[in-house]
Specification:
- There is one protein chain.
- A 4-stranded antiparallel sheet has the order 11-12-13-14.
- The mean pLDDT is 94.
- By secondary structure, the chain is of the alpha+beta class.
- The protein starts with 6 loop residues before the first strand and ends with a helix.
- The radius of gyration is 22 Å and the shape is globular.
- Among the domains are: 120 residues, Arc Repressor Mutant, subunit A; 84 residues, no CATH class.
- The longest helix has 27 residues.
- The protein is 41% helix and 16% strand.
- The chain is built from 14 helices and 14 strands.
- Keywords: DNA-binding.
- This is Winged helix DNA-binding domain-containing protein.
- InterPro entries: AlkZ-like.
- One of its GO terms (molecular function) is DNA binding.
- Pfam families: AlkZ-like.
């Protein structure tokens, strides 16, 4: 006897998103650690995104709480992981993220650094190791330091390399920036509290604990664990979605999925999705909700195939040329516009879709006021600028 494949429609996916991503007001969290766990990982390439993404989902938004988790309690850990992107993850997930993706990326980063230094400043691996040893010793002595302070102690860090010479995008890159990036990828140093406020990416550095020393599971086991966590937060979704989100090979992705006991389901567009065995039933609809999410928000960047929550016609307005999404306005599990902050601090937004009518507009207005209230005097400029954000902010 044949059994039909379970079907999960778009409405069910959006209902799951509103609840599991803590966007419906009744589902908001008390602590940023809960937000990171719900979303698996918070994008951290843009320092402001971690705070904006967390506070959008907190019942009482407070960037000081995010700073506590990152810099005081270390319950959130920044690491270079999925898709060679910087993420902030819960401390319990850090060994899993490191073993499943981070270690391989760190190895590639180190190989790239060795080649870059050999070509750019003539260093061999022995010279690099000596400079690293001095850098780590200087950091240990200081306890915390900026890159500039470390170059005072280790003059070799001041050397620089011209990249893409003769090109319009030619740039001079300091050895310190590449070297510290690799040490951070290996867990030997950690990004500490930044200079300036929570929007700053000018970090102080502190000694770190190598992920190799943590009780990390083997790589295959870690990939299965990460896939299970991701499906619980983002499922139903496709193998291609997970492959894109992690940056794994197709073979590794399929093996990880097989270890989760995920069930094949049919999505509304006819494609085959995957869901955990306990996630096949109807999803209760949350109350109507609106959200203003930041550039590179984990929800907006959670899937490769986005048509079920993003009109393809809106992509040119909301993404930059490299595929980075800007600030977005959401209504009941669908992106309906974008927002920006003007130089005077005003939060402005524009709807690209009429979904929700007056109810949606009123809810978005309330969310904009909520955002402005906790952001206060802080000014936010996304690291990656998108056409609509530039237009709304008035800052080209």
């Amino acid at each position: 006897m044949s059994h039909s494949r379970p079907r999960i429609d778009t409405a069910g996916r959006r209902a799951r998103l509103g609840r599991r991503h803590l966007l419906a007001p009744a589902c908001r969290a008390a602590r940023p650690e809960e937000v990171a766990d719900a979303l698996v990982a918070l994008h951290a390439t843009d320092a402001a995104t971690v705070h904006l993404a967390a506070c959008a989902r907190l019942a009482v938004p407070d960037p000081a709480e995010v700073e506590r988790a990152l810099y005081d309690d270390h319950t959130l850990v920044r690491l270079l992981a999925m898709r060679r992107t910087l993420f902030a993850v819960g401390a319990d997930l850090a060994p899993v993220a490191s073993s499943s993706t981070g270690r391989a990326i760190a190895a590639k980063e180190r190989a790239g650094l060795v080649g870059w230094l050999a070509k750019g400043v003539g260093w061999d691996e022995r010279r690099l190791a000596a400079v690293e040893e001095k850098t780590l010793a200087a950091l240990a002595a200081r306890g915390t330091a900026t890159a500039a302070e470390l170059t005072e102690d280790v003059p070799a860090l001041r050397e620089s390399v011209v990249v893409s010479p003769g090109k319009p995008y030619e740039a001079t890159v300091a050895v310190s920036s590449r070297l510290l990036r690799v040490l951070a990828a290996e867990g030997r140093v950690r990004r500490g509290r930044p200079r300036g406020g929570w929007t700053s990416s000018s970090f102080r550095w502190t000694p770190g604990t190598a992920f190799a020393e943590l009780a990390a599971p083997p790589a295959a086991e870690a990939r299965a664990a990460l896939a299970r966590r991701w499906l619980a937060a983002y499922g139903p979704a496709t193998v291609e979605d997970l492959k894109w989100w992690t940056g794994w090979t197709l073979t590794d992705t399929r093996r990880a999925v097989a270890a989760t006991d995920a069930v094949e389901v049919t999505l509304d567009d006819g494609t085959t999705g995957l869901a955990l065995p306990d996630d096949l039933g109807p999803a209760p609809e949350p109350e109507p909700w609106a959200a203003l999410l930041p550039a590179l928000d984990p929800t907006a960047m959670g899937w490769k195939a986005r048509d079920w929550y993003l009109d393809p016609d809106h992509v040119p307005h909301l993404f930059d040329r490299s595929g980075n999404i800007g600030p977005t306005v959401w209504w009941n599990g669908r992106i309906i516009g974008g927002w920006a902050q003007r130089p005077d601090g005003e939060i402005v937004w524009r709807l690209l879709s009429g979904d929700g009518g007056g109810e949606a507009a009123a809810a978005v207005t309330a969310e904009a006021e909520r955002l402005a209230a906790w952001v206060g005097p802080v000014r936010i400029t996304p690291r990656f600028r998108t056409p609509l954000e530039r237009e709304l902010s008035g800052r080209r």
